[in-house]
Structures are given as C-alpha cells and as structure tokens.
C-alpha cells in the first residue's frame, strides 16, 4: 500500500437519544427537548467506529481522524466520546439556538474540510431527528468529490482507491472511487464499540477547538423553511381477530382493501 496519508473528517450530531420516544412540545411546533436525554446520532457513531477501524487496520495510512460537531455547547460531550473511541482531534462549532438546515451544514463543513486538508469524509447517512439524508450528498457536490452513500462495507484497494458495498433492493451493489471522497454510513456497516471510563478520562487531554457560527460569516446559515405545526401521529385502531378465511375476506372488503 502506498504511503499517502489519510486525513479523515467525521461530522457528528447531538440528537435526542434513539431509545427515547419523541414528544411534541406544548407550542406544537417542535420536538420537546427539556429534560430529555441526548446522545450521538447512531449513524454518526457508526461513522466514527469505521474511521477508527480503518486507522487500526492501516496505522501507517491514517494521519489524523478529526471529529466535528455543529450544535450547542453541550455537544462537546459527544465529541469527547469520539475522542475516547479513537479520534485524534475535534472541533465544536457552537450554533446556539440556530437550527441549521442540511445545505448550511454542508457549507460549514466544507470550510472545515479546507482547513483540515481532509481527503476522506465518513459521516452518517442521516440524523434521526430530521431524517433529511442529504447533507453528505450536498457536501460532496460542493466539494466536487465522488461519493458513496449508504455504505454497508468499506474496503481500501490501495491508498487512493476505496471500494464500497451498498445494500439495494434485491441485493448488493459494489462501487469504487478514488480519494478525495465522501462516504455516508448505513446501519449494517459495523457495531460501535463501548467506551470505558479510562478512555473517556484520556480523551480530556486531546485537542478540542471551539468555534462559533460567527467564525463562518461568509456562510449563509439562515433557515429557508419554517415549521408551521407539528403533531403526534394518530394512534392505530386496534386489530380484529377473525375466525375464518371467509370472515377475513369480508373484513378486507369492508375497508376496501380488496
């Protein structure tokens, strides 16, 4: 394998923990966040794990893994978690109360890519709070880099070429691309490791740069969409037990399912 060094960027997001059932706030325009547990977005956690595995497998290939998060000051907790798992450095961009849309996030990340001299971006395919699933694609477009989305397997053919397997309807698709490149991760790519207390303590000594959106004054971060209202999904009607196939057919006819 050639001696070209990888500088990996892993964007991560602080979201309501996936085990918590989201609730609409009293104003009916957003998800309730007060008194709710937050954690790293699961897809981003997989991206961090994959970056660390690449480094562990090819120690001479990876120069640096840099984790970055755009969010409130409390997002530094998930960055510490990334550092404890094996990321080398990190950046927290304090967005305070501004809710950035995917295009704005992609534009800010592009600035970080240029600053870090990144040549490989590994990121979750989507965040579980908004499910947009387009930040990675937008970032690849802004950078004019090749992209491989929804990755279920990542393999380095050599230091410049990456082979990515994606799950598609009816099977798998394998594509390859050359660096620099954007890869977005799917759930089956790996299982993130558990972080022990000792590694969390060590992570406090690793560098964490702290910036704010004011440091990206050339990026338009104003939202283009406004949430008018939000409501809980209507509860499903209880099921009905039937005693025969004929009764089942009649019930389906009643609801015009057949």
UniProtKB/TrEMBL annotation:
GO terms for biological process, alphabetical: amino acid catabolic process; fatty acid beta-oxidation using acyl-CoA dehydrogenase
Gene Ontology cellular-component terms listed: mitochondrial matrix
Pfam families documented for this protein: ETF
Main function: The electron transfer flavoprotein serves as a specific electron acceptor for several dehydrogenases, including five acyl-CoA dehydrogenases, glutaryl-CoA and sarcosine dehydrogenase. It transfers the electrons to the main mitochondrial respiratory chain via ETF-ubiquinone oxidoreductase (ETF dehydrogenase).
Subunit structure: Heterodimer of an alpha and a beta subunit.
Family stated for the protein in its record: Belongs to the ETF beta-subunit/FixA family.
Protein name per its UniProtKB record: Probable electron transfer flavoprotein subunit beta
Species, as recorded: Zygotorulaspora mrakii
């Amino acid at each position: 394998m050639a001696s070209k060094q990888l500088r990996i960027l892993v964007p991560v997001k602080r979201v309501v923990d996936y085990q918590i059932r989201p609730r609409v706030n009293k104003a009916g325009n957003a998800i309730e966040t007060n008194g709710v547990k937050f954690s790293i977005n699961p897809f981003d956690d997989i991206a961090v794990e994959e970056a660390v595995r690449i480094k562990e497998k090819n120690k001479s290939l990876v120069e640096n893994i840099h984790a970055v998060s755009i969010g409130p000051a409390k997002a530094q907790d998930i960055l510490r978690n990334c550092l404890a798992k094996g990321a080398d450095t990190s950046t927290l961009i304090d967005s305070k109360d501004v809710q950035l849309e995917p295009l704005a996030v992609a534009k800010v990340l592009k600035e970080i890519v240029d600053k870090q001299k990144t040549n490989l971006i590994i990121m979750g395919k989507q965040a579980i709070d908004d499910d947009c699933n387009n930040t990675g694609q937008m970032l690849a477009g802004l950078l004019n880099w090749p992209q491989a989305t929804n990755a279920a397997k990542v393999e380095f053919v050599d230091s410049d070429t990456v082979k990515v397997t994606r799950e598609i309807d009816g099977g798998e698709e394998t594509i390859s691309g050359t660096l620099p490149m954007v890869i977005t991760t799917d759930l089956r790519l790996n299982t993130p490791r558990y972080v022990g207390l000792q590694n969390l303590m060590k992570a406090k000594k690793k560098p964490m740069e702290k910036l704010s959106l004011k440091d990206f004054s050339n990026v338009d971060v104003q939202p283009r969409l406004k949430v008018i209202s939000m409501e809980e999904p209507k509860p499903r009607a209880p099921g009905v037990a039937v005693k025969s196939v004929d009764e089942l057919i009649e019930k389906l006819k009643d609801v015009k399912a057949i």
